[in-house]
Design a protein that fits this description.
- The chain is mostly helical and 510 residues long.
- It has a domain of 84 residues.
- It has 22 helices and 6 strands.
- It has a two-stranded antiparallel ribbon with strand order 1-3. Strands 2-6 form a two-stranded antiparallel ribbon. A two-stranded antiparallel ribbon has the order 4-5.
- α4 crosses α6 and α10 runs antiparallel to α11.
- The longest helix has 23 residues.
- The protein starts with a helix and ends in a 10-residue tail after the last helix.
- 51% of the residues are buried.
- It comes from Bacteroides stercoris.
- This is RagB/SusD family nutrient uptake outer membrane protein.
Length: 510
């Protein structure tokens, strides 16, 4: 999937709907689509085209960069903003709670998610269920993933499960989140029942039933929290996860660093966005945004010479780093660096450190730290996959469900397995939600999960946590940030979309 198959992905993505019109959120049926889907080869191309929306999508940035890192991780208490940008930057606006309905990256995120939905709807309409169930199941998973990210990032959405024309789209109303979740659950149940557990070899990276069921459990756990507070959701999460845990265990990496080793990809995850170097538009842009350097600041001990970085000066919370370091948490070394050399020509004397060593806590788990690697051709050509779901998700979601279902003694096994891999002692006490949230924060740092964890813990927890964090780093007084508020529980619907839907009301505060 990282080579020849993934190349047709980009072709299919740009052929089946409008790559050039990012705000065409409801792709119109066209003559090409009517004559496509006539063979399994074409149907497979169409399915791969949906996956491609999670990649570069024909542009400079991939979906994990703009959504999971900028819009999610960047709004959590894992990353702080350390130095003023020299111009308006969307990455900074996300961190400073200054996103508006005309922020370009926010428009891109919203459009990308509806492109996934539009592509999936087209395949599901054109492809007969009785003959190509596997492809329909993949499309259903990807549609569910897109709607899940839409509903938790933007709130109520139109539920569109078939291809529609623009005129019909204009009349669509935002439906209650309960209606959106019904479609998500239905799609994931279908995917979970009609896919193999995992796919390997040339098909490695394509979604399997274990990933579909894990995402379904994450959906239920999310529904258990704010704003739905569904009293039955944790029970459903436990029932969903229990049958797959033995399969999940088989892919639990014995060493945390293996998860982010480019030579061990598709072995220790459940579902990842696939990337490949070689300047074919298939590389990851994330490495360029996780480190300081807009305008060309380099990290020559890791980066091949000449690749300018794009991100602003965002750094990992020093208090969290200190805590993990004190506990000798093995995850820290893989996830965060506390500094770097600004030249390869240096010694190790105090003078060398003073002149050439830059102390700052940077996210490094997505880097390929090899400055001799010439297969990487640009700052957005990194080969490392981005994990959306991995075994640790299932472990900690299962533990959370067990705790909330009154089965705390059964949750210990799963939390302790995470801790043991991190080099930490067993809990030694009855596990609590605080234990789960702490392990999730350390385990998934940089992966875009912390923001949504804070939101589902409730408005009060989110605002107080982020206010304390913002004050600690003086985001308001020194960086021009806005204080976090209830508004920041959601992103704004883009103005381009609001102009189409005159009857819609934007999210509170926008």
């Amino acid at each position: 999937m990282k080579t020849k198959e993934y190349i047709v992905t980009l072709i299919a993505a740009c052929s089946l709907s409008s790559c050039n019109d990012l705000i065409d959120i409801y792709p119109v049926e066209n003559n090409f689509a009517d004559t496509f889907y006539t063979s399994e080869f074409e149907i497979n191309q169409a399915a791969m085209g949906i996956y491609a929306r999670l990649g570069r999508n024909g542009g400079s940035l991939d979906f994990p960069t703009i959504y999971y890192f900028m819009a999610s991780e960047g709004r959590s208490d894992n990353l702080y903003y350390a130095a003023l940008a020299n111009a308006q930057r969307d990455q900074v606006d996300f961190r400073n709670y200054a996103v508006t309905d005309v922020t370009g990256t926010n428009e891109d995120i919203y459009a990308r998610l509806y492109q996934i939905i539009g592509d999936a709807n087209m395949l599901l309409q054109k492809v007969p269920d009785e003959q190509y169930t596997r492809y329909r199941a993949e499309a259903s998973f990807l549609r569910a993933l897109a709607y899940f990210e839409l509903v938790r990032a933007y709130g109520p959405q139109p539920v569109v499960d078939y291809p529609i024309l623009n005129e019909e789209a204009r009349g669509m109303l935002r439906q209650p989140i309960e209606e959106v979740y019904k479609l998500i659950i239905s799609d994931l149940e279908y995917a979970g029942n009609n896919l193999e557990a995992f796919y390997t070899g040339e098909e490695a990276g394509r979604v399997g039933s274990v990933a579909a069921k894990c995402l379904l459990a994450e959906v239920y756990v999310t529904m258990a929290g704010y704003p739905m507070n569904d009293p039955n959701a944790y029970q459903k999460a436990e029932i969903t996860l229990e049958p797959i845990m033995d399969e999940v265990k088989k892919r639990f990496a014995p060493d945390y660093s293996y998860i982010f080793d480019v030579n061990k990809e598709n072995q220790y995850d459940l579902f990842s966005v696939q990337f490949a170097s070689g300047n074919q538009g298939l590389g990851s842009s994330l490495a360029g945004y996780t480190t300081e350097g807009s305008g060309g600041v380099m990290i020559p001990e890791w980066f091949y010479s000449g690749y300018h970085l794009q991100g602003q000066d965002f750094r990992v919370d020093t208090l969290l780093v200190k805590d993990m370091k004190t506990k000798n948490d093995k995850r820290l070394e893989t996830s965060v660096a506390e500094g770097y050399w600004d030249t390869t020509e240096h010694g190790f004397t105090p003078e060398d450190y003073a002149a050439h060593y830059k102390e700052r806590c940077m996210m490094i788990k997505f880097l390929v730290k090899d400055n001799t690697n010439k297969t990487i051709k640009a700052w957005n050509d990194y080969p490392l996959n981005f994990p959306i779901l991995r075994p640790a998700d299932a472990y900690l979601l299962y533990a959370e469900a067990l705790i909330n279902n009154g089965k705390t003694e059964l949750a210990t096994e799963w939390i302790d397995a995470i801790r043991a891999r991190a080099g930490l002692a067993s809990l030694g006490h009855t596990p609590t939600m605080d234990d789960v949230m702490y392990e999730r924060r350390c385990e998934f740092i940089g992966e875009g999960k912390r923001y949504f964890d804070l939101v589902r813990m409730g408005k009060g927890t989110f605002i107080s946590t982020m206010k304390k964090f913002s004050d600690h780093y003086e985001h308001v007084s020194k960086m021009g940030a806005n204080n976090p508020s209830e508004k920041d529980l959601l992103l704004p619907i883009p103005l381009t979309v609001m102009n189409i839907h005159a009857s819609w009301t934007n999210n509170p505060g926008y």
